[in-house]
Amino acid sequence: MSHVDLPLPVVRRSSEEVDVVALERDLLDRVDGEVRFDTGTRAAYSTDGSNYRQVPIGVVIPRTVEAAEEAVAVCREYGAPLLSRGGGTSLAGECCNTAVVLDWSKYCNQLLSVDADNRRCVVEPGIVLDDLNRQLAAYGLQYGPRPATHPNCTLGGMIGNNSCGSTAQAYGKVVDNLHRLEVLTYDGTRMWVGRTDDAALQRRMSGEGREAELYRGMAALRDRYAGLVRERFPDIPRRVSGYNLDSLLPEQGFDVAGLLTGSESTLVTVLRAELELVPVRPHTALVVLGYRDICEAADHVPAVLEHAPAALEGVDHQLIHFQQEKHLNPEALRILPGGRAYLFVQFAGDTREEVEGRAKALIQAKPDDVDHTWYDDPEHVRDLWQVRESGLGATAHVPGQPDTWEGWEDAAVPVGRLGDYLRDLKRLYEEFDYGSPSVYGHFGHGCVHTRIPFDLESEEGVARMRAFVEQAADLVVSYGGSLSGEHGDGQSRGELLERMFGPELIEAFERLKGLFDPGNRMNPGKVVLPYRLDEKLRLGADYLPWEPKTVFSFPHDDGKFSRAAARCVGVGKCRSLEGGLMCPSYRATREEEHSTRGRARLLFEMVRNDSPVDASWRSPEVRDALDLCLACKGCKTDCPVNVDMATYKAEFLHHHYKGRLRPLAHYSMGWLPAVARVAALAPRTVNALASAPWVARVTKVLGGIAPERDVPLFAEQRFTDWWRRRGGPHGDGHRGEVVLWPDTFTDHFHPAIGKAAVEVLEAAGFRVKVPDAAVCCALTWISTGQLGIAKRVLSHTIDVLREDLRRGTPVVGLEPSCTAVFRADAAELLPKDPDVDRLRNQTRTLAELLVERADDWEPPAVDARAVVQRHCHQYAVMGFDADRKILERAGVHADVLDEGCCGLAGNFGFEKGHYEVSMACAEAGLLPAVRKADEATLILADGFSCRTQVEQAGTGRTPLHLAEVLAAALRGRDAEPERPGPSGRRSLLPLAAAGAATTALAAALVHAWRSGRLQRTGLRHR
User: What is the structure's pLDDT at 3?
Assistant: First the structure.
């Protein structure tokens, strides 16, 4: 071909006004999917995992691939820019743009076919990697590349980024594991592409259509630039930067799918992919080697590679220290070998003997001064890998350290020069006064990850960041490396590509872009003709966030709500579909706005200047996003940077409804402790009223309660009434005194649990004390955002407990949500109060007290199997280790579910409009596990919400509390739940009268409590 046959380079287009109103109208009319141009959705998609922010024009969530094709057609008619998005975790800015965003993850997420014989499968772009591999497991196959975001990254995103992960050591990048792609150009050309032999290439180049034009153009680019590609593309396994022009070389089989992989939605839209699969290796062994420093560890990588590991990762002492500071992976950190830097070396094989032999060979060959440990059991291997996979979260928002950022987190160099590169990189850190950021990564491929304490909020800081990145890029190029080793170029590195490839190859990239997208409508400003690396920043020198006054103290964010709102780093773990707790509403809806990340984005936009979201607590967009937050606190633990959305929601609701009417549920359930005390005057009457259909209907309407729910029944005798009539404590109390906390749920609904706890504690040698006065942890007021009342209630509780707290008396909580208030929320609502700190430090669950203070006490033998649902707040705040120990000591073979939230979550599942999501959460794991359990298997759930959800779901099972199981065993009986039953029939007239009286008394109590006259209502326990 002559030079004139070369495609013309793409040119930068001036910003063109898109008729957004007409565009939205036609998308709604023609696309089978969800079309969202509202402010909240646009704000939620305004950034990814990077330092950049661009508010999209709108978001389209297609139900089918064909619907996506129609969306592209509509965008083409209006000249609207277009961006495909997978998990939205990109770290270089490639997943945010002022464009129409196609989100594939909600509907287009299917495994379409599996060809087990040829080890291939066809998928839609929205399928999540872990979900795909779960489905492939039945065939003994898996997809090889496995990024650290494997629980939530989509295959479409992996293709767009040319992702890798630790397993790329064995299987290569995505480009090495693709057979074909079905793609769509902006102009509407749809085709399957892959490797193309000479005959097929000639056929596809012939003709007059657009497809033939594309193939002729690609052939011309190959012929013109082949020599430069061979000369200037780094010969390293992790060259991810730039377009994959090397895939067009004859030795690569003119692989068009390979060419388009890693193009970051700038050339085509991927509709389907045919993947090449690998067998699941049934046996693994992990060797961890300890070195004096990370550079020495890097020097040893070539020697380790001689043993052909399946994965080879490096971790420095800073990453370990940060995890210790944040209490991440404590068990795994304890079994690391000696040293201040580590290589994680994994072997995989078909037999245990094979992997053990290779592991031992490496250990025998290592230098004598290198310590080691190794494991081949899945549990230890999984735990140790968490140390490496926690890298991003562990290095972000470290207590006492400046915030760290992406921007230079992904370079790769030749493996033989890795140690020297790290030494030069550390010198560059020092030159720019960035201290000693942690470095870690895929050392077997020379790929280094890091987060650097850039100042992104001042002109000087941004300029210094730019100067550092430019010098770092030159350093990598001098080593023959790649600016990106797996995260892509996007905006972070697009501007720097000429330093790596030279102007001629940049021209080749521009010509390729011009061939596929001559109008520059596909993800413009990324990779080719890029935005500057220091513009369109999430923060930037003009970042002046709103700093509202708050009720919570936000001690981990310097007391600033703006810092809490900016805490999310976009890694997207809250979008995982299995395991852990976070985020139940996302799992039920597959909606970005209903993930922890989506809500955090909206809160960030709320406090950010120059945002489409109103900068005030009255924001309807934030209110709507928070509506389906279950306040489960799962993100407080599962989120790598400990976003605490339950606290943010409570703070927001407090201000949002300040001075105006609240939702009805905030009164009926937010004031539940007060209502329960009134109901205790005539519990049989209240229960009979609640059981009368017409009364129940009216009650639910007036209380904002879901009509599908049953109103829980009140106990005829409260636990505290039983305690007083019992006459106080029994037993010798040789282990000392404890305060048993009479939470509202135990006291008024399930008092048998309190009685059982007294029996267990006294049998274990404790002297039990129950507060004389009416007390409450204020949980229901906190969860409904009535924080002023919550503070008054908590202050009263501290007054009641003050003498016990100052004596060091432990406080034992039975209801996990109430216990969690004392362990977490109270200190943030009432900071700088030493008695609140004492309450936090002295509060224990029943199991924690027995493990810590009665370790020699042997619980009675239960000898049973149990399905155990951990309460979300216990999972997030207290943990479950002590319960595991007690259950094990009692001979309970516990299947502790890892299936997420029960879905009821306090008031959430009772509120009108939440029933469907509530049940979807329960059906995701809890309820199927309960139904599967046989009658002899115990169902354990310490949380009132968890028990109620199971009871009201028609399972025929009534869950038990740990205290009930242990107390029954003390009596030599099988555990049987004792719960309130429906009252007998009564005439409606007395019931109505009693109901009116109860309502009036409740209203009076609410007024008294609002007026601060809690202690003068006459309803205190005597």
Answer: 42
Residue 38 above 70 pLDDT?
yes
- Residue 1021 above 80 pLDDT? no
Token readout for 1009 is: 């409590």
The pair of structure tokens assigned to 772 is: 């004389």
The helix/strand/coil state of 739 is: strand
What are the distances in angstroms from CA 681 to CA 599, 678, 777? 42, 6, 21
Q: Supply the DSSP string of 175-229, one letter for each residue.
A: GGGEEEEEEE-TTS-EEEEE---HHHHHHHHSSSSHHHHHHHHHHHHHHHHHHHH
pLDDT at 1011 over 70: no
Cβ–Cβ under 8 Å, residues 530 and 491: yes
User: By CB neighbour count within 10 A (0-12 exposed, 13-18 middle, 19+ buried), where does 420 fall?
Assistant: middle
Q: Residue 981: its pLDDT value, please?
A: 85
Tell me: pLDDT of 1 over 90: no
> What strands, in cross-sheet order, belong to the sheet with 283-291?
371-375, 283-291, 341-349, 311-316, 439-442, 447-450
Tell me the per-residue pLDDT of 97-146, one tens digit each, with 9 for 90 and over: 999 999 999 999 999 999 999 999 999 999 999 999 999 999 999 999 99
Distance CA 694, CA 701 (A): 11
The DSSP string of 365-433 is: HS-TT-EEEEE-SHHHHHHHHHHHHTHHHHTSS-TTS---B-SS---B--GGGHHHHHHHHHHHHHHTT
Per-residue model confidence (pLDDT) at position 14: 64
Query: pLDDT value at position 584?
Result: 97
Q: Are 341 and 296 spatial neighbours (Cβ–Cβ below 8 Å)?
A: yes
Tokens 């028609």, located at residue: 954
Q: What does the pLDDT read at residue 161?
A: 96
The token pair that represents 286 in the structure block: 């992990």
Type of residue at 351: T
In the chain, DSSP finds a helix count (H) and a strand count (E) of 46, 24
Count of CB atoms situated within 10 Å of the CB of 956: 10
Give residue 254's region: left, alpha or beta (phi > 0; psi -120 to 50).
Answer: left
Q: Is the dihedral of CA 748, 753, 755, 761 positive or negative?
A: negative
Per-residue model confidence as pLDDT tens digits over 355-378: 999 999 999 999 999 999 999 999
Cα(584)–Cα(109) distance, integer angstroms: 19
Q: Is residue 95 reached through a cis peptide bond, with omega within 30 degrees of 0 on the bond before it?
A: no
E strand or H helix that includes residue 769: strand 767-769
Nearest alpha carbon to residue 222 among 191, 240, 196, 186: 196
Rounded Cα–Cα distance for residues 918 and 946 (Å): 11
- Which residue(s) pair with 767 in the sheet? 737
Res 541 pLDDT > 60: yes
Answer for the pair 884, 898: CB distance below 8 angstroms, yes or no: no
Q: How far apart are CA 932 and CA 923, in angstroms?
A: 12
CB 358 within 8 A of CB 281: no
pLDDT of residue 917: 98
Percentages helix, strand, coil for the chain (3-state, rounded to 5) are 45, 15, 40
The proportion of the chain whose per-residue pLDDT surpasses 90, expressed as a percent, equals 90
Q: What is the dihedral of CA 624, 630, 632, 634, to 10 degrees?
A: -60
3-25 tens-digit pLDDT: 447 999 988 876 678 999 999 99
The angle formed by the CA atoms of residues 49, 51 and 52, to the nearest 5 degrees, is 95
Computed over every residue of the chain, the mean pLDDT equals: 94
Note the pLDDT of residue 15.
Answer: 65
How many Å apart are CA 951 and CA 941, to the nearest integer?
11
